[in-house]
Amino acid sequence: MWDKHNMLSSTTTRANMLFMLWLLFSSWVFSLVSATVSYDSKAIIINGRRRILLSGSIHYPRSTPEMWPDLIAKAKEGGLDVIQTYVFWNGHEPSPGKYYFEDRYDLVRFVKLVQQAGLYVNLRIGPYVCAEWNFGGFPVWLKYVRGIAFRTDNGPFKAAMQKFTAKIVNMMKAEKLFQTQGGPIIMAQIENEFGPVEWEIGAPGKSYTKWAAQMAVGLRTGVPWIMCKQDDAPDPVINTCNGFYCENFTPNAKYKPKMWTENWTGWFTEFGGAVPTRPAEDIAFSVARFIQNGGSFVNYYMYHGGTNFGRTAGGPFIATSYDYDAPIDEYGLTREPKWGHLRELHKAIKSSEAALVSAYPTVTSLGSKQEAHVFKSKSGACAAFLANYDTRYSVKVKFGNGQYDLPRWSISILPDCKTAVFNTARIGGAHSSKKAMVPLNRAFSWQSYNEQSPTADDREATVHNGLWEQIYLTRDASDYLWYMTDVKIDPNEGFLKGGQGPILTFWSAGHALHVFINGQLSGTVYGGLDNPKLTFSNNVKLRAGINRISLLSVAVGLPNVGTHFETWNAGILGPVTLKGLNEGTRDISKQNWSYKIGLKGEALNLHTVTGSSSVEWVQGSQLVKKQPMTWYKTTFNAPGGNEPLALDMSSMGKGQVWINGQSIGRHWPGYIARGSCGDCDYAGTYTDKKCRTNCGEPSQRWYHVPRSWVKPSGNLLVVFEEWGGDPTRIALVKRTATA
Ligand SMILES: *[C@@H]1O[C@H](CO)[C@@H](O)[C@H](O)[C@H]1NC(C)=O
Ligand SMILES: CC(=O)N[C@H]1CO[C@H](CO)[C@@H](O)[C@@H]1O
User: Fold this and answer.
1) What one-character DSSP code corresponds to residue 149?
2) Which positions make up the signal peptide (predicted)?
3) From 175, 193, 469, 697, active-site residue
């Protein structure tokens, strides 16, 4: 019953047999041999049945456990079969050997909720995850293991990676969560988009890939492993495609199915960048195009993006919102018409499943830019996809005995080869309404506390002769590191007799920085996603005698992508010079510098109820506004109802926000989105530069306040503001459907 594509060569047959042997062996390891997951050239096979699988990424720490059941239910209602998630190592092992699997990091609970909903799980263990997540998911302590180099043929790294991967696999096994044990996990992923790195680093990369595949397979999960963006994924690991389109992807062996593990539903937002969106018509088109070309597994990255709470955002400069223009928005509400349109697409694909999994497509031309892909099985099932690739013209095509209207850049699906039940460019009107932020008219009553800049003689500071890299000192326990030194100015300096002060110049590896001279803010500089590095070069006001120079270097998320990104520095590495003195230019890099990790307010836990009562706050007419380095606090009662909540922070600059001691993330509405926001025609190849919004406005104005973090009354809201802002204009809003 197979057409020519299915005539297996003897080598592939042999490989298939080896694979079957491997499967038999791995299932033998478990006492429960009831369920199996395997694959062939067509599809993933679950319990003997080939399946077209529609999957969506939901990252458990990017929402709250209270949100999970509803997110999963909406994914199911949207027509998904599989939930895909990464596993976030740095969340699970904050210090070596000390594991954390509670609250938002309760992986077992998340997987079990997916199981209860009747969906499958694709567990992308990584443990490198990229994901715009801090340090790509690696714990920062890992960088300081002796002799380590990440993601290459390196002993200490491989040992650590294997230990964590085995820990997760064993945890899943102990809870019987693999499909072969009756659980929902049908697939696991090792590494992540390593192909491009391997290409760059060569031989050690190649042997690392082999090792990673063998190590993973050796853990005997009983379910297939995948490697995405890894053309040389060794058998039996399946290599899969990531991208905005994947229709032309072919796996590296004829006996592997064509899988698309990251279909980007939108794109992430960076502070300082415009907000990318992707039209629903184009996503639907890309998915239909993949399926019509023989694809059998599609994952939406992201189906729900969520929030980079706390300091989990990677980068540097990744925004707190990880909304991703996904079918379920950051707040857990369906995004229309995207969610509804894709649900219709999924129904059409599922109605065609019998034909799709049992036949290869016959492709015929219907015009210069039009094609029919027909799947006809021996048993009589027939499904057709009629495609119009023309970005400018819609056309009428003849197919079978019928005529079909194909809008430009669209695909119609005919599950019986006769009736077009869905077209990717035709969005039905039945989808529920759009959502908007609606202010809840209640003013907060604020109190303020001023964070003084410390000086080189600070008793808690560490003194070092010369400059230190930032993360080496902070170990990322805080965004903030103070670099402090004293500069002696002779009363005879020329500039003191009128004229400008000397020019202070330094270079920093990033990411943002404030300059304080004798307690006064004398400048703020920051980099951006394209270039986190920054230079400060400005006249500063110095006086005769001792001058206190305090530089606050600020990290905004550690890098998550790039070859050996773990070696990227942050902070002031020098030289630091003063130009325009009688002696000419003085290099102050090599003198004594004092270092202080974090803010005073952080050390005092001002974001908590007990901590916040440890200092004197002022209020009323004394309330400090538009001053840098200010802490604000207020208490409020929760609004009724159950709509998601957010804070409108547009009157503020940069800092961090906490509700009842929990960090809702970094705020940075002062970083205005650069670039141009042009037209957004759904037709034509999508890139993340197309269909952008928010240009000239804050990259992120609203910050999600999870409902489960607020109690009916007496909620403590704390804001730390670096730049200066007007807290009286911070507003609580609810996200709700507009009429
Ligand atoms: C620099 O710091 C070291 C170590 O704290 C100290 O012994 C030394 O006296 C300092 N030098 C100056 C010039 O202050
Ligand atoms: C190389 C790259 O950008 N990879 C990324 C693909 O998609 C998302 C971006 O949101 C990342 O998580 C991947 O790792």
Assistant:
1) -
2) 1-35
3) 193
| Distance (Å) from CA 462 to ligand 1 centroid | 11
pLDDT in tens, 682-719: 999 998 889 999 999 999 999 999 999 999 999 999 99
In DSSP notation, 683-700 reads SS---TTSSEE-TTSBS-
Interatomic CA distance for residues 212 and 221, integer angstroms: 15
Residues in the chain: 739
Give the pLDDT score at 498.
85
Distance from the alpha carbon of residue 468 to the mean position of ligand 1, in angstroms: 16
Q: What spacing in Å lies between the alpha carbon of 541 and ligand 1's midpoint?
A: 25
Binding site membership of 6 for ligand 1 (Cβ less than 6 Å): no
What is the pTM assigned to this prediction? Answer: 0.93
Probe target for ligand 2 pocket from 242, 263, 686, with the most ligand atoms within 8 Å of CB: 242
Asked whether the beta carbons of 560 and 503 are under 8 A apart, the reply is no
Q: What are phi and psi of 213, to 5 degrees?
A: -65, -45
Q: From the CA of 588, which ligand is nearest?
A: 1
| 218 Cβ neighbours under 8 A, 6+ residues apart | none
Q: How far is the CA of 577 from the centre of ligand 1 (A)?
A: 19
**Per-residue pLDDT tens for 381-427?**
999 999 999 999 999 999 999 999 999 999 999 999 999 999 999 99
Identify the CA nearest to 630 among candidates 521, 513, 473.
521
Of 132, 191, 247, 262, catalytic: 262
Between strands 275-276 and 259-264, the pairing is unpaired
Question: What is the residue with the minimal CA distance to atom 13 of ligand 1?
Answer: 592
**From the CA of 323, which ligand is nearest?**
2
Beta bridge partners of 619: 447
Distance (Å, rounded) from C-alpha 489 to C-alpha 544? 5
